[in-house]
Amino acid sequence: xxxxxxxxxxNVGGRPYVRVTPSPLFDTEIIATATATTEVIGFSRPxxxxxxxxxxxxxxxxxxxxxxxxxxxxxxxxxxxxxxVKITSNSNATRxxxxxxxxxxxxxxxxxxxxxxxxxxxxRAYLSVPLTEIPHGVGVDGFSVVAGAGSERNGVAHxxxxxKFTVNKFLVHIRPSEAFNTRFFWxxxxxxxxxxxxxxxxxGLYYNAI
Length: 210
Known about the structure:
Layout: E1 7-12, E2 15-22, E3 25-31, E4 37-42, E5 76-88, E6 96-97, H1 98-106, E7 116-121, E8 124-130, E9 145-146, E10 163-164, E11 172-174, E12 180-190, E13 196-209
Parallel strand pairs: 6-9
Antiparallel strand pairs: 1-2, 2-13, 3-13, 4-12, 5-10, 5-11, 5-13, 7-8, 7-12
């Protein structure tokens, strides 16, 4: 017989008891077809607003579960322990082109380096790594591509495959109303030939005060 999810005593938004669920925060941004891009900011545009390209107009609950820009509303909080990034097309019927995937992951010029993934809280970057370090996570088998084999894959498609992000084995706590976001940065401009969807997942524990 299943038991009710236990309550945990922790102060969130001035309330001493919370219900804890293993649930990710997720967000989606679009790089529109033939759009020159050097930066994409995640978790900055909540449900009900447009994404940065204006393609998702507006975002709905399948695009993001963020309700306020770059923060959690009272009385919610989050313990972060990892990241995933899915890079696909915006259509289930159209797979991402191999060259576009290469450009998103590795950049367009070898001398300038590939894409950088950052996680920020407030004005400080707490993580800054090459995007190739952030795995795809759950999926068919990494990426499905058109026009040739041997394309880059962001790790084995498995739920346990995510970029581990803990400090001395402790989870990183995000308080209610504390600012955070993710950032993709390309040293040289990329310009995908077809639409690219970036879906970001922050794996962790979601706290809802009761």
